[in-house]
Design brief:
This protein has 89 residues and is mainly alpha-helical. The protein contains 4 helices and no strands. The chain has 2 domains: 1-48; 53-89. The chain is flat, with a radius of gyration of 20 Å.
Length: 89
């Protein structure tokens, strides 16, 4: 766990002291996300339990995603309606 915090702190220090452009930083972030997703895909593909139960796991994942998206939309709507617009009045 400490490795994660140390990595984050080193990244913050490098970002604060270097002259990396925003575009270059965005490209590095996208490459990192693609590599992470690729490795996760390999990990899932080699796990026989996940592959044999993909129909059950897929349905649960779909439900989690739908409720997360729906909840996010509701919270953003409520915040913009009552908090942000309320400050403008």
């Amino acid at each position: 766990m400490w490795f994660i915090y140390i990595s984050l702190c080193i990244g913050i220090l490098i970002g604060a002291t270097s002259k990396i452009s925003k575009q270059h930083n965005d490209n590095l972030t996208m490459i990192g996300i693609f590599v992470l997703l690729f490795i996760m895909g390999i990990s899932i593909g080699t796990n026989r339990d996940v592959i044999s139960n993909i129909d059950k796991v897929g349905l649960i994942a779909l439900l989690y995603a739908l409720f997360t998206i729906g909840g996010s939309i509701i919270v953003v709507y409520l915040l913009t309606t009552f908090v942000i617009r309320g400050k403008r009045k």
